[in-house]
Amino acid sequence: MNILVINCGSSSLKYQLIDSVTEQVMAKGLCERIRIDGRLKHVPSGRGPVELEAPMPDHTAAVELVLQMLTDPQYGVIGSLDEIGAVGHRIVHGGEKFASSTRITDEVIQAITECNDLAPLHNPANLIGIASCKKLMPQVPMVAVFDTAFHQTMPERAYLYGIPYEYYEKYKIRKYGFHGTSHSFVSKHTAELLGRDVKELRTIVCHLGNGASICAVQNGVSVDTSMGLTPLDGLVMGTRSGTIDPAVIEFIAQKEQRSLSDVMNILNKESGVAGVSGVSSDFRDLETAIDQGNARAKKAMDLFCYRVAQYIGSYTAVMNGVDAIAFTAGVGENNATARAGICQYLGYLGVKLDPERNRVRGEDAVISTDDSRIPVLVVPTNEELAIARETAALVQGQ
Ligand code: ADP
Fold first, then answer.
1. Could you give the strand order of the β-sheet that contains 102-103, starting from the edge strand earlier in sequence?
2. Which of 14, 80, 260, 266 has its CA at a distance of 20 to 30 angstroms from the CA of residue 291?
């Protein structure tokens, strides 16, 4: 069955058409500048990319264009839309309502809408993607795959905040966690690579991209994760501060005469390694600057690695040990300096990184030495494939 995976942002739409049997990507692409002007990059498998400017007054126009490209005689990969068996939508926030992926019905759309408050930038865009597909392909079954669902197994002591309990009761203020599709995929694949059963393994997954989070996966389920009510919490990220003393917010607001929303914007968009280094949110730029002797870039990298190592220590305690550590996402898969910087703190666990193996980029690999007490791996994430698998399984009633 061919599954169309849709990841709809406020002004962008990423897609992949995946054959669920062979798990091959038939085509993928990106629509950008939706509601501004409109730009499409479409990459049919085995052929060069097609780039074009086309008006996209709304998301429906973008989906329409994607469907045209997929069936285009020259650039397409399928003969007609009948060859799309199902659509899998990435949904950012499922609140406490969704602990797993689900077939999309009117009730499900309503329940996702009720989570809009928790992810005001993301969920409304995700819902527009659903509405557009429903309009253009009313007969095709659709599945919602949530970033938060995997973490619904966290125990109360991990997800409750130390604030008046009524705020949890009234507003559902708690830790939700994100990147769940990735943490689930990588923890399973780590177990496969080690020839172990995920249900018997304690794995710490470090999803280190522009947005970064870390997850303690015990016996196949998430028991704790570093992002919180929103994706601002936890690790120091590309532009996000991660965990800070909440009092800093009022302090900055007063000193700089800024509003609360201004300060939140600073913490989301002007902080992290970009804010500390003053160089860039991109770890490649950071590395170049470090090589050139830029001291603040080095501080940012040190801060990033230290915080990841702190979380690894914390999650080792939470699980009473750890059997494997996996690095994934842009930085985790590609940046040997960051991985080495993190692992330098893990000697107490008996972790020994192999510098030669650590040079790997973007492929499955064990990067620790053979006598490392705990294996450390690079395991590229593939959220689109995970969404396609979930979608196919639900549609085929497995
Ligand atoms: P997100 O999906 O959260 O936007 P990514 O997972 O794409 O982020 O990660 C982006 C980060 O990964 C950037 O800091 C970038 O430097 C790093 N990165 C991505 N690809 C590479 C690469 N091939 N080599 C080195 N670093 C990379």
1. 50-53, 39-44, 25-32, 13-19, 2-8, 84-91, 142-146, 102-103
2. 266
Is the pTM for the entire model greater than 0.90? yes
Residue pair 48/36 in contact by the 8 Å Cβ criterion: no
Q: Which one, of 156, 210, 159, 215, lies nearest residue 183 by Cα?
A: 215
Supply 27's token pair. Answer: 């085509």
Q: Give the distance from CA 373 to its chain's centroid.
A: 29
Which pLDDT score, from 0 to 100, does residue 304 have?
98
Across 276-375, where does the E strand assignment appear? 324-328, 365-366
211 Cα nearest atom in ligand 1 = 3
Beta carbons of 90 and 383 less than 8 angstroms apart? yes
Cβ(87)–Cβ(2) under 8 Å? no
The topology (CATH level 3) of 196-383 is: Nucleotidyltransferase; domain 5 (3.30.420)
Multiple choice CATH, 2-146, 3.10.300.10, 3.30.420.40, 3.20.20.70, 3.20.20.370: 3.30.420.40
178 Cα: distance to centroid of ligand 1 (angstroms): 18
Q: Report the SS3 class of residue 259.
A: coil
- Taking the CA of residue 207 as reference, the ligand 1 atom at the shortest distance is 6
Structure-block tokens of residue 226: 């570093």
| Cα→Cα distances 387→8, 97, 346, 352, Å | 13, 19, 33, 34
CA of 152 to the centre of ligand 1 (A): 27
Q: Ligand 1, closest atom to CA 284?
A: 16
pLDDT (0 to 100) of residue 338: 98
The set of catalytic residues is 147
Whether the CB of 210 sits within 6 Å of ligand 1 = yes
Q: Distance (Å, rounded) from C-alpha 313 to C-alpha 264?
A: 28
**Predicted local confidence at residue 146, as pLDDT:** 97
What does pLDDT average to in each consecutive run of 10 residues of the chain (398 residues)? 93 95 97 93 95 93 95 95 97 96 97 92 91 94 98 98 98 97 98 98 97 97 97 96 98 98 95 97 96 98 98 98 98 98 98 98 98 98 97 90
Cite the residue boundaries of each domain of the chain with CATH code 3.30.420.40.
2-146, 196-383
Question: Bridge partners of 146?
Answer: 91
359 lines ligand 1 (CB under 6 A): no
Tell me how far apart the alpha carbons of residues 326 and 304 are, in angstroms, rounded to a whole number.
17
